[in-house]
Every structure is written in structure tokens, then in C-alpha cells.
């Protein structure tokens, strides 16, 4: 099968594109893993999606330029922690650079060994099944080995560059 023709240059700026994407309300996650050298990895991501029920697959994506990229590419397993409404400060913490993101954070090792953030509304422990380079990101597809949820917990959501504890109206 041949590749589709290259699209013409976009008639909008990268800022326009980012602003338009910001109109899509998403949940907020912290993706965590244990690097091959034992280091804890974690970052805030809202690029999380289900892919398949059978087998159970999910995806998330990470900038190719991320300093965490080598650790996530090599990790056998990772966890996607869907944050609760009261975990906004954690989302902000795990999006900062140059700090120990896990310092003072309550977590435990999951069944796969990946760190699980206490209080998350849902957790997906995944085998690092495949990775796909697309544009300036790597798409990670994970096979869910275990999942859990907190019934009745309100999620943290992201819209228009801001966190909300309820959907914006």
C-alpha cells in the first residue's frame, strides 16, 4: 500500500491549532513507570484513549523531545493514573521540569511494578506493547494487564488550558 500524498501547508498557525485542540475537554492522567535503572518516571498527559476491548488496549502520546522518552521507551510496563478532581496540584507537579516529581507523593507499586498514584479515579497497568512515531510525538500502545477504579470519585478535567473539577459550561 502506498503512502497518501503529502498534505499542502496548513492555512493556520501552530498556536491556532493548539487553541482549537484546547476546546476538546479531556481527562487528566499521570503516566508512570520504573526505568530500567530503577528510577521512577512520571508525567502529566491528557493524550489518553482507549483502542480496543479485546485485547484490552489503550494509547497515550509523548513528545519525541521529552527528557523522559528514553525511560518510557525502555520500560516493560507503565501505569496510566486517571486523576481525581482533588489532584490538580499533582497534575501541575508532574508537568514541571527539573524537580523530583515523586517527592512527597503517595504511591505504591502496582502488579506490574509501575508506580500507582494513590487516590486516582482509575488506574490502567499496561505492558508496553508498541510504539509508533508520528509527527513530533511517539504514540505508546499499552496492553492492559490490570485496571481498577474508584466508584463515585469525580475526575479532574482539562479544557482551554485550565483544570476543572466539573465540565465547563
UniProtKB/TrEMBL annotation:
One of its GO terms (molecular function) is FMN binding. InterPro entries: Flavin_Rdtase-like_dom (IPR002563), NADH-dep_flavin_reductase (IPR050268), Split_barrel_FMN-bd (IPR012349). The keyword Oxidoreductase applies. Belongs to the non-flavoprotein flavin reductase family. It comes from the Bacteria. Keywords: Oxidoreductase. Residues 21-165 form the Flavin reductase like domain. The keyword Oxidoreductase applies. It holds the Pfam family Flavin_Reduct. SUPFAM superfamilies: FMN-binding split barrel. This is Flavin reductase (DIM6/NTAB) family NADH-FMN oxidoreductase RutF.
Amino acid at each position: 500500500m502506498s503512502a497518501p500524498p503529502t498534505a499542502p501547508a496548513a492555512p493556520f498557525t501552530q498556536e491556532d491549532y493548539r487553541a482549537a485542540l484546547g476546546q476538546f475537554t479531556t481527562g487528566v492522567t499521570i503516566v508512570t513507570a520504573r526505568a530500567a535503572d530503577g528510577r521512577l518516571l512520571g508525567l502529566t498527559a491528557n493524550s489518553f484513549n482507549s483502542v480496543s476491548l479485546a485485547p484490552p488496549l489503550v494509547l497515550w502520546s509523548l513528545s519525541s523531545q521529552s527528557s523522559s522518552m528514553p525511560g518510557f521507551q525502555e520500560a516493560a510496563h507503565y501505569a496510566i493514573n486517571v486523576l481525581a478532581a482533588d489532584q490538580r496540584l499533582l497534575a501541575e507537579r508532574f508537568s514541571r521540569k527539573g524537580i523530583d516529581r515523586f517527592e512527597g507523593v503517595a504511591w505504591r507499586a502496582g502488579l506490574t511494578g509501575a508506580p500507582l498514584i494513590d487516590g486516582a479515579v482509575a488506574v490502567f497497568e499496561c505492558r508496553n506493547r508498541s510504539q509508533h512515531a508520528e509527527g513530533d510525538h511517539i504514540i505508546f500502545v499499552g496492553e492492559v494487564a490490570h485496571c481498577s477504579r474508584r466508584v463515585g470519585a469525580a475526575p479532574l478535567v482539562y479544557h482551554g488550558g485550565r483544570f476543572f473539577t466539573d465540565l465547563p459550561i
